[in-house]
């Protein structure tokens, strides 16, 4: 079952929180996209098929869609929650001249822009704070290169991403679990996502740190231990390298009314 709740809307855009409780491996009936859009996942993961290509969508990979796209969806991992943004053609083309759709790697800066939009929505200032956050989010997302299309790597990388999200430790044990060489696994990540496996694993940990900071976490030493960092300083360095901000600043930025 899928439910959509309007977060904010104006003549040039609409943003929805979409939750799906489906748990099925089969594909849905085709859904035709009616406008320009961006979809980013908050929790969970699902599969999307477009023009014969299957992509696993989760908090680290979102997608851009265009009018007329015929999409199919499957939910083999259970439910998910995502933010779906539809943008008018005029606003879309002022943001980008791009006419390509595709999957987008969601690094920590794009993740932060997404979270700041949701924080602005909670602050209820749609005409200024929400619009400004939305424009920033679109600017960051549409500058991102789409994820590479390498069919031989896609399934392998999808399985590895799921294992990393579940906290699977170490490149060597992960390669053994996936029954591939460590070299092939490492190379597949760079080809498919444009980042190293190490960078991706840290990106996932930073996402979990953002979840905790957004919820008001103040004990950074405990947070570092929980997420497998050597110490608080290691956590701070990694979070800052990925997001551009320290954990303390991020906690403030993710409040409903950031200064």
Give the helix/strand layout.
Elements lengths: L1 E9 L2 E8 L10 E2 L3 E9 L1 E5 L2 E5 L3 E5 L4 E5 L5 E8 L1 H7 L6 E4 L2 H16 L2 H18 L7 H15 L5 H8 L3 H12 L3 H18 L5 H7 L5 H12 L3 H7 L6
Antiparallel strand pairs: 1-2, 2-9, 3-8, 4-7, 4-9, 5-6, 5-8, 7-10
Let me know the average pLDDT: 89
CATH topology description of the largest domain: Jelly Rolls
Overall structural class, as computed from helix and strand content, comes to alpha+beta
Largest β sheet strand count, sense and barrel closure? 6 strands, antiparallel
Walkthrough of the structure:
The chain has helices at residues 89-95, 108-123, 126-143, 151-165, 171-178, 182-193, 197-214, 220-226, 232-243, 247-253; strands spanning 2-10, 13-20, 31-32, 36-44, 46-50, 53-57, 61-65, 70-74, 80-87, 102-105. It is an alpha+beta fold.
What descriptive keywords fit this protein?
about 260 residues, alpha+beta, Jelly Rolls, Arc Repressor Mutant, subunit A, 2 domains, six-stranded antiparallel beta sheet, four-stranded antiparallel beta sheet, 10 strands, about 25% strand, HTH_AraC-typ_CS, DNA-binding transcription factor activity, HTH_AraC
Structure described in brief:
The protein folds into two domains: 2-143, Regulatory protein AraC (Jelly Rolls), CATH 2.60.120; 151-253, Homeodomain-like (Arc Repressor Mutant, subunit A, Orthogonal Bundle). It has helices at residues 89-95, 108-123, 126-143, 151-165, 171-178, 182-193, 197-214, 220-226, 232-243, 247-253; strands at residues 2-10, 13-20, 31-32, 36-44, 46-50, 53-57, 61-65, 70-74, 80-87, 102-105.
